[in-house]
Amino acid sequence: MTLALFGGAPVVDRGAHRTWPEVGDSQLEGVSRVLSRGVLSGASAPEAAAFQREMAKYTRATYALLTHSGTSALHLALAAAGISAGDHVVVPAYSFVATPLSVLHAGAIPIFADVDERSGLIDPETIPLTSRTRAIMPVHMHGCAADMAPILDLCRRRDLVLVEDAAQAHGATWQGNPAGSLGDVAAFSLQSSKNLGAGEGGVLTTSDEKIAASAHRLRNFGQDVGLDDAFDPERPLDGTRPLESTRVGWMYRGNELLAAFARAGLAELPRRTERCQRNAERLSARLAKLEGISPPFVPVGSTSVFHKYRVRHDGSIPRDLLVKALRAEGLDVVLWQVAPLSAQAVFRAREGFGGGFPWSLDRDTDWESLYRPDRFPATQRLLDRSIVLFSQTCPLIAQDEAMVDKYAEAFERVWSARAEIVRRA
Question: N or C: which end of the chain has fewer CB within 10 A?
C-alpha cells in the first residue's frame, strides 16, 4: 500500500479526531449554577469550597486549595513550605518551563537533574546536592508517577522538602497512592490541555496543616486568614477577613466558574482515565511488536494517566522525517520539547528579576558550567529519539478505540517503510 507521503490515501481522517476538553451537560450545568447564584468569586465560596473538598478526597490529601494556575500552585507550594531567596531546589532537566520558573518566583534557584531516558522521569542518581539544597521537585512527567522511594529516602536523610509537580498527573499512582499525596506538598494544573482541564487554574494539595494554612494566607495577599473562614451568602463580596497583609503574598485564588467546571470534570475523570489507560495499553501492545520502537515506559509500582504518549525509536529514520511521514497519514504528532530546560534563554542569560537575582545570591557556584545542556545527556537522547503521538488539542484521553487502532495501523505502515522513506528523502 502506497504511503500518504508518496501520494497514497492517509490512514486517518484528521477531522475525525475528538478534540479536548470535552464540554458536556455537567459542565454547562455547573457554569449555569454559578451564574444563577450570582456569586463569582471567594476563597470559601460554594463551588470553590466543594471542589477543594472533592479534590482532597480524590488525592487522599487532607487539604486542597484552588489557585488561578498550575504555576501559581507550584510557587505557592514552595513558598508555603518555607523555600526562600537563595535556596537551591532540584528539578528535572525535562519538564515544562513552569517547573523551574516557579522556583525563581520563590526567589530560589533551580538545580537541574537528568532523567531516566526510558521514562522521562527524574533520575535520583543524578540529583546534585549542595549546601544550599532545600527541596526536591520531582515531576510526574506525562502523567506517569515518579518512583518516589529513593527521593523520599533522600529527603528524609537530608531534611529536604519534597514538592510534587503533578501538573499532568491527575489520577496517577505510586504504590497505590495517588499523586498529590506522596510528598510534603503538591501542585496540579487545570489548564485546558490537562486531563482535568478547566481553562486555567491549579490546585495545591497537602496533608500538612501548617503548609496548608500558610498557603491559604499567601494566596490571599499574605493576610491573616484561616482555613475555616466562613462564607456569607447574603454578603458574598464583603467577608470578614482582616485586610492587613502580614507578609508578602499574592492574589492566587481561583474563581467560581473555574471551580464549577473543574468539579464536573473531576466527577468524570475516573471514567475518562480508565478509557485513556485502556487505549494506551491497546496502542502500546501494537507498537511494542515493532523492532526499534519503545512505547511509553511505566516503572514498576507506578501508574500513568498518559497525559502525553511519548514513543521512543532507534534512530533508523531521522526524527523529523518520521514526524513528516506520520503526519502525512493524518496523525497528530508533536515534539513538545527539543532540549533540556537549562538550554532555554532565561537560564542561559540568568538576568532573573534584574541584577541576576536570584543567582546573584550564590556567587560561589559556576552557573555557566552547571547549566550546560550537555550535562543532561539522557534528556537530550530522549528528545532526539522520540515523538509524542496525539496533540494537546486532540489528546489520547479524548480518543476512542477506533482512532487508536488507526494510529497503530499508520505507525506500522510508516515504520515498515522507513528504509524507503529515508532513501527517497
Answer: N
d(CA 281, CA 101): 34
The per-residue pLDDT for range 27-62, each reduced to its tens digit, is 999 999 999 999 999 989 999 999 999 999 999 999
What is the rounded distance in angstroms from the CA atom of residue 21 to the CA atom of residue 66? Answer: 19
> Mind listing the pLDDT tens digit for each residue in 127-173?
999 999 999 999 999 999 999 999 999 999 999 999 999 999 999 99
**pLDDT at 230 (0 to 100):** 78
Structural domains of the chain sorted by starting position, each given as residue range(s) with its CATH number in brackets: 4-21+268-336+381-424 (3.90.1150.10), 25-266 (3.40.640.10)
Q: Does the structure show a pLDDT above 90 at 240?
A: no
Pairing outcome for strands 173-174 and 109-113? unpaired
Please list, in sequence order, all residues whose beta carbon lies within 8 angstroms of the beta carbon of residue 380, skipping any fewer than 6 positions away: 339, 340, 373, 374
The reply to whether omega before 21 is within 30° of 0 (cis) is yes
pTM of the full structure: 0.96
Compute the distance between CA of residue 209 and CA of residue 65 in angstroms, rounded to an integer: 12
At 304, is the secondary structure helix, strand, or coil?
strand
Strand pairing class (202-206; 173-174) = unpaired
Distance, in Å, from the CA atom of 29 to the CA atom of 36, rounded to the nearest integer, reads 10
Q: Which long-range contacts (CB under 8 A, 24 or more apart) does 122-128 make?
A: 122/91, 122/92, 122/146, 122/151, 123/378, 124/150, 124/151, 124/154, 126/378, 127/90, 127/151, 127/154, 128/90, 128/370
Q: What angle do CA 144, 150, 153 make, to 5 degrees?
A: 130
C-alpha cell at 109: 534557584
Q: Residues near 50 by Cβ (< 8 Å), separated by ≥ 6?
A: 259, 263
Task: Give residue 19's pLDDT.
Answer: 97
pLDDT for 299-331, tens place per residue? 999 999 999 999 999 999 999 999 999 999 999
Residue spans of beta strands (DSSP E) within 22-108:
63-67, 88-92
